[in-house]
Backbone:
């Protein structure tokens, strides 16, 4: 078994995990539109698209690992890491759920575990196992902020046009309590967004630092090349 085969096989496992998490959530909701408007599902979907494209390119033996690849791969990795960190640190302690059916359908717990924990971990492991290290630039984290910042714009646009979310542990109009200016005020929202942005930048810079420290190092598999 070659390293290429192992990498493709692992990425297919990641794709399966991402698909399963999204699927289990969508089949157990009373509103797919509302559910797909959460950052969690959107970050999982972005990762799914990225991994499918990577696998297709790898199967076709295309050269794709250029600066754009490392920029995008880092962006989607950080995007789903944010999902896991924010959920476990700020949302889960407040009994946050993405669907009013959460407590009545058993496999919603499994669905949440996939999108908030299992898939993010698998995506991070993929980086450590297979990505060439030392290609992340120190300014990348600024660009990576585009995904979460775009989501903030999306939420307020979605809400302005009548979109609604589930309010269990969150906000009916703005998905997450830290975006709800009607409850915590504009200053409160600004404070939370600044804190989250700085936390994202900090996590991202640590990621870049680790990447540069690992430059030239590669996980070795005991198989032929």
Residues:
């Amino acid at each position: 078994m070659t390293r290429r085969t192992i990498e493709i096989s692992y990425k297919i496992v990641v794709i399966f995990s991402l698909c399963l998490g999204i699927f289990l959530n969508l089949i157990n909701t009373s509103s797919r539109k509302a559910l797909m408007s959460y950052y969690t599902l959107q970050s999982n979907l972005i990762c799914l698209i990225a991994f499918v494209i990577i696998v297709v390119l790898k199967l076709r033996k295309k050269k794709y690992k250029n600066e754009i690849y490392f920029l995008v791969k880092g962006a989607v990795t950080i995007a789903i890491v944010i999902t896991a960190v924010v959920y476990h640190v700020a949302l889960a302690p407040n009994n946050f759920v993405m669907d009013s059916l959460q407590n009545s359908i058993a496999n919603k717990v499994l669905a949440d575990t996939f999108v908030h924990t299992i898939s993010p971990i698998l995506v991070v492991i993929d980086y450590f196992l297979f990505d060439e290290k030392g290609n992340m630039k120190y300014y990348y984290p600024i660009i990576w902020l585009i995904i979460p910042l775009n989501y903030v714009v999306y939420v307020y646009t979605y809400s302005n046009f009548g979109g609604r979310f589930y309010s269990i542990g969150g906000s009916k109009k703005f998905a997450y309590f830290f975006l709800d200016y009607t409850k915590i005020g504009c200053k409160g929202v600004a404070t939370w967004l600044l804190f989250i942005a700085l936390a994202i930048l900090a996590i991202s810079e640590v990621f870049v630092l680790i990447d540069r420290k690992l430059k030239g190092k590669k996980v070795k598999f005991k198989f032929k090349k």
